[in-house]
Design a protein that fits this description.
184 residues, 15% strand, alpha/beta
Length: 184
């Protein structure tokens, strides 16, 4: 029986977002999202544990790296998710990849089991495991602050963005271009 399950959602999971969240809440499974899955699981969800890959931070990626079962719903596993050493992605985990897009299922070398079907169809009879303790741990990792004191000693993008954010009112609208600044 798995003790550290996790869910990774991408943009292809949008139509099943309510089903995924309800299922994750029922079984206390932490949910992580890709950049394209930003609107699949919201920051205020009780099971949300961060955005992963190069778009996340160390605390978010620790949840994926240390899970023992990873459900991947509606996402290909690109280099931005897997990182520079794909063989270390979700190290030691069994990966269950569910997608209606066959090309997304064939993308990763780390696939354990793939399901070419809709997420809603898969969740009718899934491999079920309770992740209560792991959800608590992932929430703790989510609190990890990647902005360190030394980022304020020089001109460092993390420090600059933190100060910028502190000066903005809560209802501010910030317009940006593509690139690293969008991630920050």
């Amino acid at each position: 029986m798995y003790k550290r399950p996790a869910i990774l959602v991408g943009g292809g999971a949008y139509d099943s977002r309510e089903t995924i969240e309800a299922w994750a809440i029922k079984y206390n499974i932490p949910v992580f999202r890709t950049w394209n899955g930003l609107d699949v699981i919201t920051d205020d969800s009780p099971v949300f544990c961060g955005t992963v890959g190069t778009y996340g931070g160390i605390g978010r990626n620790l949840g994926i790296q240390n899970c023992d079962l990873l459900y991947v719903f509606g996402s290909r596993l690109s280099g931005r998710i897997l990182g520079g050493m794909p063989e270390t992605f979700a190290r030691g985990a069994d990966i269950l990849h569910v997608d209606t897009d066959k090309s997304a299922l064939q993308f990763s070398e780390r696939m354990t089991i793939t399901f070419h079907k809709s997420i809603d169809e898969y969740l009718q009879d899934p491999l079920i495991t309770n992740g209560n303790d792991y959800l608590i741990q992932c929430k703790e990792w989510l609190k990890y602050d990647p902005v360190k004191p030394e980022h304020f000693e020089t001109v460092h993008s993390y420090g600059v963005m933190r100060r910028f954010s502190e000066y903005l009112p809560n209802n501010a609208i910030v317009v940006y271009d593509t690139g690293g600044n969008a991630i920050m």
